[in-house]
Structure formats: structure tokens, C-alpha cells
């Protein structure tokens, strides 16, 4: 991790850049995949699975037998942990339900807003470099809590054409039994256009690599909604002199190990903490099974020595990290001042991994600085909010003349007439 001491504000934008490929370059690779799936359907899905995953797929839909085998292959300890994760995620997301909001804006005029679940949603579960069964819980459980009618998931097969048993186990455990063996941009294309086997959906959820994320963004041009751009994982740790370098190094490596295009950032006003953390990162990295992946991510990761807390706060908000860890003595106070982040982990004993798996918050979060304008997945992501209104006769009598006047001023006589004919009827 390269260290930048007291970086000048005018250099921040460049120094805080993510390592991802340029969108135009990825689009060039992804667009032909989308077009081919739109044209050739299942045949294209099978061909891309062979090309990108080395898998020969017979049936794209996971069978009952595969689910039963998965049940046997997942050990009881892991089943217990999955249950706890489901319980906490369900508890946090169920609490996000809101009542119908009804307001009488004037006597005789009622306006209300109701959350209505999106009917057809497709979930993408990453599986290229690690089988992220925790994502099944994160984006599957809220879909069911919200009451979405059709919910299914797509995930890449391994080279034997199989889906990891924990993905199938977690899916069945939360009540999802339609799983399609297809990954990457081709899965996003299938959920966008539909194929012989996979139905098209109204909204696509789920994180993924740069190809998946670019495909999701392109899917929006076809009228499909997406949760958000949730690409390669990132974490920013802001640590003061009370932080423990062993903890911080572990947190940084936890996201660096996701992929070579992940990025981790350390911010501190203490050079001593930065140096000790760098040493710990080297030590812990050397024994990590995924050390090659993590080492690549560290090549474009950075440490920033800042002159004071105010400057550090500005830099942290400018980066808009997917995950922000506040390893600070006054972490709770600082948390109040965070305006750009996907999810914030407050205090020395809040590892980011807890949120990845089981504390209750959602791990599907905006990356690449999109935390400036997008939220992570929550129960709300599965609803549309529909507004309603009912106007009684007395309400129209008091509001109607104002609407007539405004419509006339906009020179929209038909709008005005829709009120006038009713007011005239009331006078008769
Ligand atoms: N932001 C979030 O909320 C969040 C959450 C979990 C994971 N993630 C990220 O998700 C990503 C998962 O990535 P992954 O690769 O392990 O799995 P993945 O399932 O996203 O992607 C695997 C697929 O990528 C496609 N692919 C691979 N190389 C390709 C190429 N050259 N051209 C076109 N397509 C290609 C293949 O079809 C393959 O099936 C990681 O970057 C991880 O950090 C993000
Ligand atoms: N850190 C990822 C989100 O960026 C989520 C995850 C799943 N499993 C492990 N981690
Ligand atoms: Zn993670």
C-alpha cells in the first residue's frame, strides 16, 4: 500500500480513484454477450458457461436431487451459523416495514402512500472466485419479507457444472427453490430479456464483478431496474492512535482478498499506526490462502496520513467507501458526521466481516463512489411506493378554484375543465 503524506486537496480525486477497468472497455466486452443472449436464449447461456466457467450445462435449472444433495453436503455447524445469519438479517429487514402513510392535506382531501412489492425479481449470486452463499441471505430474505411474488436466483456453475451446496442450502432454507446455473453478464442478460428457461424480471439484485456490474448498468437501458452498481469490494479504515494494528490489517485484508480489483484504504492522523498496520498487513498476508489475490488488490490500495481529524473526515466523505470502519476512540461521534458511505462499522470491535455475514445489515452495497448517490439494499429496494388520493365534494370546492387558476396560467384548458365540470355539477 503506497503511503501519501498530507496529500494536497487538488490531488485527492486522482489519488482516490478505483482500480477498475474503464466502463467503455468493459461495455465493449459485455454488449456482445447481452446481444447474443437476447438472440439465442438458452443456447447462448450454455455456450457462455462453457467459455467463461468451463462448464458443460445440461439443465440450467437446478434439480430437486441437487437440492437434496446440498442438504447432505453442508455440515451441521455451518447450518447453525446460516440460521443465525438468516435470523438477524430477517429481524433487521422486517423492522424496516413501514405503515401506510395517510395525510389530510386540507379538509376533504386525503393523500396516502403505500409500499407495493415488485412482482418479479431476479437475484444474482456471485460465484466466480468464491461461492458467496451469504449473498443469498442478503438479497433473498428481504425479497420474501417484502412479498415479491416471483423470486429466483442465478449463479455461475463451477467447472463440473455444479452450484456450491451452501448456496443451494441457503436458498432452500429461506424458501427459494428456483436456482439457475448461469453467471456473469449472460445471467444479467437472461434476467433482462428472458430465455426459454429463465423469465425476464422487473428488477435485478445482487453484486458481482466488473462484467456483472456493467451488464446490470446496461440492462437499465432495456427498462429493467437494478438495485445499484455493487461491484468489486472496498473498505476504508479510519484509525486513530487507539486502534489496534492487528485488527486493522485483518479488516483491510478481508476486503483485499475478494478480488484483484478490490481496493482498501487506510486513513490516519498517526504515522505510527500506519507503519505498524503496514507491517501487520505483510505478516498476515503471507499466511493467507488467497494471498496472491489480496496482494494484487494491495498494489492499488493506499494509506493516507492526514494533518487532523477535520481533513481526514473530508477525505473519508470524498472517497464514499462501500464499507467504512471507524476504528477511533470517538467513533460514535464521528459516525454522526459521515455523509457518504455504503455501511459504517463503528468502534474497534466491529469487524466488517460481521456485516458481510451475520450481524443483520445488508452486505449488498454501492462501490466505486456510488455511495454518494445510492443506498445499499434494504427492504425498500423491493417496493414501489404508490400514492393515492381521494377528494370529497367539500375538498374540491375549496381546492378546485386554485387548480383552475394554475391550469389557466399554464395555458392548459383541458386540465382546468376537469375541475370546472365538477364544480359546475356541484352548483346544480
Ligand atoms: N458490492 C457488493 O455489495 C459486493 C458483495 C459481494 C461481492 N462483491 C464483489 O463481487 C465480485 C464477485 O466476482 P467473481 O468474479 O468472484 O464472481 P461473479 O459471479 O461476479 O463473476 C463470475 C462470472 O464472471 C464472468 N467472467 C469472468 N471473466 C470474464 C470475461 N473475461 N469476460 C466476460 N465475463 C467474464 C463469468 O461469466 C463468470 O461466471 C467480487 O469483485 C466481489 O468483491 C461485491
Ligand atoms: N464484502 C462483500 C461485499 O462487498 C460481501 C461478502 C460476502 N462474503 C464475504 N463478503
Ligand atoms: Zn467481504
Automatic annotation (TrEMBL):
Binding residues annotated for Zn(2+), in chain numbering: 255, 258, 356, 415
Superkingdom of the organism of origin: Bacteria
Reactions performed catalytically: L-histidinol + 2 NAD(+) + H2O = L-histidine + 2 NADH + 3 H(+)
GO molecular function: histidinol dehydrogenase activity
Cofactor(s), names only, from the UniProt record: Zn(2+)
Membrane keyword on record: no
Binding site for NAD(+): 124, 186, 209
Binding site for substrate: 233, 255, 258, 323, 356, 410, 415
Keyword annotations: Amino-acid biosynthesis, Histidine biosynthesis, Metal-binding, NAD, Oxidoreductase, Zinc
Annotated InterPro entries: Ald_DH/histidinol_DH, Histidinol_DH_monofunct, Hstdl_DH
Binding note for cofactor: Binds 1 zinc ion per subunit.
Biological or metabolic pathway of the protein: Amino-acid biosynthesis; L-histidine biosynthesis; L-histidine from 5-phospho-alpha-D-ribose 1-diphosphate: step 9/9
Catalytic EC class: oxidoreductase
Catalytic residues (UniProt): 322 (proton acceptor), 323 (proton acceptor)
Entry EC number(s): 1.1.1.23
Purpose of the protein: Catalyzes the sequential NAD-dependent oxidations of L-histidinol to L-histidinaldehyde and then to L-histidine.
Family listed: Belongs to the histidinol dehydrogenase family.
Designated name of the protein: Histidinol dehydrogenase
Lineage start: Bacteria, Pseudomonadati, Bacteroidota, Cytophagia, Cytophagales
Amino acid at each position: 500500500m503506497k503511503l501519501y503524506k498530507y496529500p494536497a486537496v487538488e490531488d485527492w480525486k486522482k489519488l482516490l480513484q478505483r482500480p477498475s477497468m474503464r466502463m467503455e472497455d468493459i461495455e465493449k466486452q459485455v454488449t456482445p454477450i447481452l446481444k447474443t443472449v437476447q438472440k439465442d436464449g438458452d443456447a447462448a447461456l450454455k455456450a457462455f458457461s462453457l467459455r467463461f466457467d468451463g462448464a458443460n450445462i445440461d439443465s440450467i435449472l437446478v434439480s430437486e436431487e441437487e437440492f437434496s444433495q446440498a442438504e447432505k453436503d453442508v455440515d451441521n455447524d455451518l447450518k447453525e451459523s446460516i440460521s443465525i445469519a438468516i435470523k438477524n438479517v430477517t429481524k433487521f429487514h422486517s423492522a424496516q416495514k413501514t405503515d401506510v402513510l395517510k395525510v389530510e392535506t386540507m379538509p376533504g382531501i386525503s393523500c396516502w402512500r403505500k409500499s407495493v412489492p415488485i412482482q418479479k425479481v431476479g437475484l444474482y449470486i456471485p460465484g466466480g472466485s468464491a461461492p458467496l452463499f451469504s449473498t443469498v441471505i442478503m438479497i433473498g430474505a428481504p425479497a420474501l419479507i417484502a412479498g415479491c411474488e416471483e423470486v429466483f436466483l442465478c449463479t455461475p456453475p463451477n467447472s463440473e457444472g455444479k452450484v456450491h451446496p451452501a448456496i443451494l442450502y441457503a436458498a432452500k432454507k429461506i424458501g427459494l427453490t428456483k436456482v439457475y446455473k448461469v453467471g456473469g453478464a449472460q445471467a444479467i442478460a437472461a434476467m433482462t430479456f428472458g430465455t426459454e428457461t429463465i423469465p425476464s424480471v422487473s428488477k435485478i439484485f445482487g453484486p458481482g464483478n466488473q462484467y456483472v456490474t456493467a451488464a446490470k448498468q446496461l440492462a437499465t437501458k432495456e427498462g429493467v431496474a437494478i438495485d445499484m452498481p455493487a461491484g468489486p469490494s472496498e473498505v476504508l479504515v479510519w484509525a486513530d492512535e487507539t486502534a489496534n494494528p492487528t485488527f486493522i490489517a485483518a479488516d483491510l485484508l478481508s476486503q483485499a482478498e475478494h478480488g484483484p480489483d478490490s481496493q482498501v484504504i487506510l486513513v490516519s492522523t498517526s504515522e505510527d499506526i500506519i507503519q505498524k498496520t503496514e507491517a501487520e498487513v505483510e505478516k498476515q498476508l503471507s499466511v493467507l490462502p488467497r494471498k496472491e489475490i489480496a496482494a494484487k488488490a494491495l498494489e492499488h490500495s493506499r494509506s493516507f496520513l492526514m494533518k487532523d481529524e477535520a481533513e481526514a473526515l473530508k477525505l473519508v466523505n470524498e472517497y464514499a467507501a462501500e464499507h467504512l470502519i471507524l476504528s477511533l476512540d470517538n467513533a460514535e461521534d464521528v459516525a454522526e458526521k459521515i455523509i457518504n458511505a455504503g455501511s459504517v462499522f463503528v468502534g474497534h470491535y466491529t469487524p466488517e466481516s460481521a456485516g458481510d455475514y451475520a450481524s443483520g445489515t445488508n452486505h449488498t452495497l454501492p462501490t466505486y463512489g456510488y455511495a454518494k448517490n445510492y443506498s445499499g439494499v434494504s427492504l425498500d429496494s423491493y417496493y414501489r411506493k404508490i400514492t393515492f388520493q381521494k377528494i370529497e365534494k367539500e375538498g374540491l370546492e375549496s381546492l378546485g378554484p386554485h387548480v383552475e387558476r394554475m391550469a389557466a396560467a399554464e395555458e392548459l384548458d383541458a386540465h382546468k375543465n376537469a375541475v370546472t365540470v365538477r364544480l359546475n355539477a356541484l352548483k346544480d
